[in-house]
Amino acid sequence: MNPSILITGATGSVGLELAKQLAAKEIPFSALVRSLDKAEALKHLKGVKLIVGDFNDQQSILNALKGIENVFLLSNSSDEAEHLQCNFVDAAVKSGVKHIVKLSQFAAELNSPVRFLRYHAVVEEKIKSTGLQYSFLRPNLFMQGLLGFADAIKYQQQFFATAGDAKISLVDVRDIAAIAVERLITRNKESEIFNITGPEAISHNKIAEVLSKVLQKQINYVNVADQEMLSALLHFGFPEWQAEGLIEDYAHYARGEAAIVTDTVKDVTGKLPRKFSEFVEDYKSYFE
Q: pTM for the complete prediction?
């Protein structure tokens, strides 16, 4: 019997964790990958069916969607993500998909000053317009995003951002994936929007304090100006659209718009969301 669940973005942080959790529950699923060479982490998972395809190739998407009822929608970061995801939704309708679980973003709104939040909102509206059942997962800033600063923390004992003293209710990717699992496997569910956060809102200075305690060495947070951060991102090879979008994201955090704490993780999974200190303990080797 072919799987009825398709995961897109299956090699990324959320998609891979979702795949691992489905495999642990022995739930068969298909995973869309651009290349089998990039799917080493998926190949040996129990119950996985790898399908090669690309969001830019509509026919490959239609092939991947054959027999699929539930889709986890996530695409690579791209300046065409909005367009590609909307095209994917059209293909899902054509293929008879019943339910789309879309990974969106906390505070997604059509009139947001943050381009990423606008794009997610456009895709959400597109899905709503089809009449398909939907689950929009809107997580706050990922704890695992700190892994991008791992070398700076390890070798320089510091990390940089433009968040000021604002508090953010960071969430662990493993908790996001657990909610996605529940929405993909639960039958007869209503369409719903899920604002997903961790159990506490903390500042970047508090992040540094927790890192210092767990790693047993002083780690400092350095707040920098937007232009300085933008220049650094461009220097490290980020395309201009993405670098500017990240600055907009952090301005959103700095305005205190991401400090809300919800009970979504517990309400959906029955388990308490992971604290930031638990994340650091589990990923300690990346920072040492």
A: 0.96
Is 41 among the domain residues? yes
Number of domains in the chain: 1
| 148 C-beta neighbours (distance < 10 Å), count | 11
Single out the residue of 48, 61, 58 nearest to residue 22, CA to CA.
48
**What residue numbers bound the domain in which 67 lies?**
5-141+171-197+260-274
CATH number of the domain bearing residue 38? 3.40.50.720
Q: What gap in Å lies between CA 157 and CA 224, rounded to an integer?
A: 16
Residue 46 lies in a domain: yes
Profile the chain (288 residues) by mean pLDDT over runs of 10 residues.
Answer: 87 96 97 92 95 94 96 92 96 97 98 97 98 98 96 96 97 99 89 98 98 98 96 92 95 97 98 98 97
Tell me if 25 is assigned to some domain: yes
Return the number of other C-beta atoms located less than 10 Å from residue 102's C-beta.
Answer: 25
Tokens of 76: 């690579």
